[in-house]
Amino acid sequence: MCGIFGIISPGPIRDHLEASTSTLSHRGPDDFGYFIGEGVGLGHRRLSIIDLKGGHQPMFSEDESLCIVFNGEIYNFPELHAHLISKGHHFLTRSDTETIIHAYEEWGEACVERLRGMFAFAIWDNKKRKLFLARDRFGIKPLFYSQRGERFYFASEMKAILVGGKIPRDIDEVALASYFTLSYIPAPMTIFNGIRKLLPGHTLTLQENGVRIHKYWDIHYVPDRGRSEAYFSKKFVELFYESVKIHLISDVPLGAFLSGGIDSSAVVAAMSVATESPVNTFCMGFGGNAGGYLDERRYARMVADRYATNHRECEVIPDPEGLLEKIVGGFDEPFADDSTIPSYFVCKIARENVTVAQSGLGGDEAFAGYERYLGFRLRNIYTKLPYFVREKLIHRFVDNLPERSDGHYTINHMKRFVRSGSLDDGEAYFGYLSILNPGTYKSFFANSVRFDRHFDSVKTLMLDYFNTPPCSSSADGLNRAFYCDIKTYLPEDILAVTDRMSMHHALEVRVPFLDHPLMEFCATIPPEMKMKWFQKKYLLKKAVADILPREVISHRKQGFVGPMTQWLKNDLRSYTVDTLSATNLKKHGFLNHNVVRNILEEHFSGKEIHDTLIWSILVFQKWYDLYIESDSKTL
What is the CATH number of the domain that holds 309? Predict the structure, then answer.
C-alpha cells in the first residue's frame, strides 16, 4: 500500500514533485522515490508489503522506456509472472509492481482486465509521451486528477494536488449539495471544481491530443434461477475461501478486523482454515454516555474463542478535539460517515501489531445486508395499501412519533420509509439514501433557488445508476439498488473510510468480499435468495451456518458505526452548539442558520434523529476552516 503522485508540466518540476509526494508520507513511511523526465515527474511513498528489498518505486521496464508508480496489491501476480515468463519476459524482482509493467508491455492498456486485486497506478510511456492511469474495479484504491492549462496532476489524495496553490480552491456547489444529501461526494466529483476522481473500473490516457477516459469493467446482474440454494451456497463458500486465501499473500505480519458481524466473522473463520498460526483479530467498542446497543464485542469474542485468535479490543471515548481535524485532513473534502471514528481507532490498534488486515467490507452489497434493502422489499406490500391509508393515516401518524430515547433508529427508519414509500422505485430508493428529509432540503441552504437545481443534479446522478444497470430492463429493484450502491456508496463512502483511516496509520486493509470473480458470481444469485422472508443475508447466513456461532448469525445487524445520536445529545452537545453557532455558519454563508438551529433542537429534544446531518455540518465547518478560510498550502 502506497501513495503516488505525478505531474506533467512545462518548466522545472523537482521542488513541486518532492513537496507534493512528501504530503503522502503517511501512506508510505518505509521508502520513497522520484522519476523526473522531460516535462514529467512521478513520485512514490512506499509501505513495504511484498518483496521488501526489491520493490522500490518508481520502477522501470528493462529498456527504461516505461516507468510506473503503483498503489495496491495484485493477488494473481504469481500466475501472471509465470505466464509472462513463458512469453519471453525477464524479471529483476518478485514484486507485483514489475508484473504490471510486463503486463502492459504484453497487452497494452488492456492489461488491467487481467489484474485481480486493488490498485491505482500510473505508467509513463516515454517513447509515446503517454501517461496511463488505472483504478481498480470497485474503487478500493483512490485516484484523483486535475488538468489546468498545460499542467496535469494525479495523486492518491487531493492534498498532494493542492500543494503550491496551482489549483484554485473553488467549491463545486453540486458536490456540496451531494455531500449534504448523501454525507459523501460521489465520483467523479470532488468538493473542488478543479479536481476529479477517476471512476472505479476506468482508465485515463493522456497524450498530446488530450485526455481519454475508458470503462474497462462493469458488474452485470443476470440472476441464474435455474440453480438451487444449495448450489449457490456451496459455490460461494468455495470462491470465498479461495479469495480469503489469496488475500493472505504478504511478507509482513497480517491480521483481521473482527466486529462481531457475519461478514468479518466469516473472513476470520476462512483465514483460520488457511493459516497454521492463530489469526490476529482486532475489535472495538464505545464508551461515554452512549448506551450499549451498538457494542458487539461479545459476539466478536465468541468468534475469537472458537478459532483461538490473538484477540485485542479497544474502546472509543468521544473527544472531538484533534480527531475531527485528523478525519478532515484524511479526506481533504467534507466526508461525514461517522464510521470514520471507530475505523480510526481499530486501524490504530491493528497497526500496533500488524501491517496488513483483512476486512469484511462488501458483504452487505453482495448479500442484501442494509436496512434500506429490507425497506425496499417491504414497499411491495406497502404500496398495495390504498393511497388514503398510506398518506393520510400511516404517514401522518409515523411522522409525529417521537424518536426512541436510547438513540436506536427504529422510529427514524419508519419515518424515512413512509416519507418515500409511495414514490416510484428509483425515487423511493433515493429517499432512503438522502440524509435531508423532504421537509428540510428546500430551506436548508441560504440560496435555496440555486441549490434546488443542484439537488436535482444529485438525484439525476443517482437515478441514472439505479435506472440503467447493465442488465435487462426488467431487472429486479433490489439488483438495481445493489448496482447503485456498488457504483456510489461502496467506493466513495465505506471504501474511502477504510483507505483514508488505514493509511493514516500506514496500515494496509484488504477486502476479500470484493474479489471481482466472487462478486461477479454473487451477481448471478437471484435477489429472492439473498433476502428471503424479509430476512437480510438469508443465503449468506445459510452458507456460513456451520463455521460461525449461532448467536453471531442470528443477532441483529448493527453496523460498524458509532453511537453518534447519543454522543451529540450528551458528550458532544456543547461542542456542537458552539461550532454551529450563527456566527460560525455565516463565515461561508452556504447554510440557513435558522434551519440548522431547528435541526439541532429537534435532535436534542428527541423529536427527530438528525445525527448524520448534524455530523455533516460539523465536518463541513471544520473542513471550511482548514481548507478555505486558512487556505493552508501544506494540507
Answer: 3.40.50.620
pLDDT band at residue 1, thresholds of 50, 70 and 90? low
Which three cell numbers mark 629? 478560510
Provide the domain limits for residue 549.
229-368+491-554
Q: How confident is the model at residue 108 (pLDDT cuts 50, 70, 90)?
A: very high
CA 155 – CA 308 distance, rounded (Å)? 41
Does the N-terminal peptide bond of residue 188 adopt cis geometry, omega within 30 degrees of 0?
Answer: yes
Bond from prior residue into 58 cis (ω within 30 degrees of 0):
yes
Mean pLDDT value of segment 428-450: 88
- Pick from 349, 350, 284: nearest CA to 317: 284
In a domain, 590, yes or no: no
Specify the pLDDT at position 130: 97
pLDDT at 633 over 50: no
Identify whether residues 186 and 322 lie together within a single domain: no
Domain boundary among 215, 249, 277: 215
User: Tell me: the pLDDT tens digits for 295-321?
Assistant: 678 899 999 999 999 999 888 776 766
Clarify whether residues 499 and 362 are in a common domain: yes
Residue 560 lies in a domain: no
For residue 634, is pLDDT > 70?
no
**Do the beta carbons of residue 80 and residue 101 sit within 8 Å?**
no
Residues annotated as catalytic (active site), given as ranges: 2
Spatial distance between the Cα atoms of 288 and 13, rounded to a whole number of angstroms = 49
115, HSE (Cβ side, Cα atoms, 13 Å): 32
Looking at the structure, do residues 233 and 211 belong to the same domain, yes or no? Answer: no
Alpha helices per DSSP H over 289-392: 297-306, 320-331, 340-351, 363-367, 371-382, 387
Q: Which three cell numbers stand for residue 460?
A: 439525476
- Is there a domain that residue 429 lies in? no
Q: Which residues pair with 130 in a beta bridge?
A: 125
Nearest to 281 by CA among 254, 315, 321: 254
Q: Does the pLDDT at position 513 exceed 90?
A: yes
- The CATH number of whichever domain residue 182 belongs to comes to 3.60.20.10
Count of domains for the chain: 2
Nearest alpha carbon to residue 362 among 184, 489, 531: 489
- For residue 130, give the nearest of 44, 217, 204, 214 by alpha carbon: 204
Residues 138 and 98 in one domain: yes
Segment 253-258 shows an average pLDDT of: 94
Highest mean pLDDT: which of 218-222, 391-395, 421-425? Answer: 218-222
Helices (H), 355-511: 363-367, 371-382, 387, 395-399, 410-420, 425-433, 441-444, 448-467, 477-487, 489, 495-504
Sign of CA dihedral 540, 541, 547, 548: positive
Length of the chain: 635
Q: How far apart are CA 229 and CA 225, in angstroms?
A: 10
**Average pLDDT of every residue of the chain:** 91
Residue 427 lies in a domain: no
Residues 58-86 pLDDT 10s: 999 999 999 999 999 999 999 999 999 99
